[in-house]
Amino acid sequence: MSHYDLILIGAGHAHLGVLRRWALVERPPGRIALLSAGHDAWYSGMLPGLLAGRFSADDCRIELAPLCRAAKVELIVAEAQGLSAAQQQVELADGRMLGASWLSLNVGGQVAQPPQQGADMQLLAVKPFADFLAGWQAWQAEPQPLAILGGGAAGVELALALADQVPQLALFCAGTLLAGHNAGLHLRALGHLRQRGVQVRENCPIERVDEDCLISGEVPVWRGHRLLLASGAQALPWLAQSGLSCDQGGFVQIGASLQSLSHPQLFAVGDCASLPGARKSGVYSVRQAPVLAANLNAVLRGLPLRAYRPQRQSLALLATGDGGALLGWRGWSAGGQFYGRWKDYLDRGFIRRHRFSG
Ligand SMILES: Cc1cc2nc3c(=O)[nH]c(=O)nc-3n(C[C@H](O)[C@H](O)[C@H](O)COP(=O)(O)OP(=O)(O)OC[C@H]3O[C@@H](n4cnc5c(N)ncnc54)[C@H](O)[C@@H]3O)c2cc1C
């Protein structure tokens, strides 16, 4: 079994930020590896633009090999399928075991899937992105009516990106559309969706898929053959089996230093972690990067740790599929092409910052 001083598991937003910092300034001492399921990290913020035909695939992904080389970190391309918190060991899907003195988890989450009876409906989850894009390409070759499950930012952006590409589109949300965002943003999003012919069904939780029907409250609410899953992040099942202290949803409970509450040798950040006040969104994961980089450096050098405090508000910028975007900030909302150009500038800046040559 190979042993490392530190293994970063998953190329999520925070780990990309850590690697970038180590590429630009001195990295901590020791044998360090990044374990990633793929050779690239896809940037979810640009995915709707990719689907709308505004970006190429290369615009939306960060190649990990040059970033790791610049950070002097070993890249291991393999999927983690188990973790022992007590033994600090990671089990890979190819059967290998890796051990480490310190571990950091940034593996995101998976998309929720309703129970399905029969095989009349094809289901496609928006994550992992590489699988989703391959599945969508096949669907795109033969457009058919489509239903999207999930009324959060991802569901809204996907519906607006795909509305012109399918003969009929329905968007189902368990509660209200964009719950947790301000009322103005909710109304603007509804207006855009209706204008593009999207049938929006709020407060309509889909309990199961029965042959070619979506069932809510024992009533068939949509009939078709294609369902896109874009509802909230669910914890990866192996986290709850690792021995780590997890919340009710199976997400790893952490404290302000970003360390596991039960196993301080292990850090967790982004969607896979549970910390009061931190939301499951890329924005929060990005903001955890500087504190994580400092704390991983601190534990490897025996220095004091820093505290992360989640921001109370975050800016929402939702792509409308036509080059524009909707903006939500506190109680305020706006929309138009100007915000779309701003979003593009921010998104392209994220990719540029993490792209290293050589
Ligand atoms: C269409 C869409 C649009 C979105 N737009 C935005 C937006 O504009 N702004 C925003 O803030 N949020 C947005 N989100 C939400 C955002 O994608 C997530 O909240 C965010 O990606 C979580 O980041 P993370 O750092 O936790 O990990 P992720 O970005 O999810 O990265 C996890 C990484 O871990 C890897 N991984 C997973 N499992 C394993 C494993 N077993 N072994 C090894 N590696 C593994 C994955 O390959 C991936 O590289 C959007 C989501 C979607 C679906």
TrEMBL record:
- GO terms classed as biological process: aerobic electron transport chain
Q: Is Flavoprotein one of the keywords UniProt gives this record?
A: yes
List the Gene Ontology MF annotations in alphabetical order.
NAD(P)H dehydrogenase (quinone) activity
Keyword check for Flavoprotein: yes
Q: Which domain of life is it from?
A: Bacteria
Supply the InterPro entries for this chain.
Answer: FAD/NAD-bd_sf, FAD/NAD-binding_dom, NADH-Q_oxidoreductase
Q: Which organism is it from?
A: Pseudomonas taeanensis MS-3
- Swiss-Prot/TrEMBL keywords: FAD, Flavoprotein, Oxidoreductase
Cofactor dependency:
FAD
SUPFAM superfamilies referenced in this protein's UniProt entry, alphabetically: FAD/NAD(P)-binding domain
> Any idea where the FAD/NAD(P)-binding domain is?
4-280
**UniProt protein name:** Pyridine nucleotide-disulfide oxidoreductase
